[in-house]
Write a structure and sequence with these properties.
single chain, 144 residues, mainly beta, Deoxyuridine 5'-Triphosphate Nucleotidohydrolase, Chain A, 4-stranded antiparallel β-sheet, 11 strands, Deoxyuridine 5'-triphosphate nucleotidohydrolase, magnesium, dUTPase, dUTP diphosphatase activity, hydrolase
Length: 144
């Protein structure tokens, strides 16, 4: 699949780091560093603009290393970029650690996954088919 992209950052285009990678790293495009205080959040711009085909979305997800090592993650994970959005990709980062975190220009801050999706049509009914789980909610299938 080929996707049109405008790159107004000073960084290389996102790419797959390995043959089996599902996501491509997004980099911060900053004129000056951003300091995220503990529990602080900010929209970090990437300098990237994309044109997805209808029927696809781009999902912005956390980078596991940044989350595990620094406590920094994507707040609305996964963030969705719709096929009709043409603005700059921004990443809502949140610092869940007890220490300030500085986002530097060019730093890998999130990953982008392109995924196909379906459009649902609702069929309003009075009764749903029964299952063994029924109305069992959170934790109803057990701990182990």
């Amino acid at each position: 699949m080929t996707i049109n992209i405008i790159n107004r950052s000073g960084h290389a285009l996102p790419n797959y780091e390995t043959i089996a990678s599902a996501g491509m790293d997004l980099r911060a495009n900053l004129e000056e560093p951003i300091v995220l205080a503990p529990l602080g959040r900010a929209i970090v711009k990437t300098g990237l603009f994309i044109e997805l085909p209808i029927g696809y979305e781009a999902q912005v997800r956390p980078r596991s290393g940044l989350a595990a090592k620094k406590g920094v993650t994507v707040l609305n994970s996964p963030g969705t970029i719709d096929a009709d959005y043409r603005g700059e990709i921004g990443v809502i980062l949140v610092n869940l650690s007890n220490e300030p975190f500085t986002v530097e220009n060019g730093e890998r801050i999130a990953q982008l996954i392109v995924a196909k999706h379906e459009r649902a049509e609702w069929n309003e009914v009075e009764v749903l088919t029964e299952t063994s789980r029924g109305e069992g909610g959170f934790g109803s299938t057990g701990v182990k």
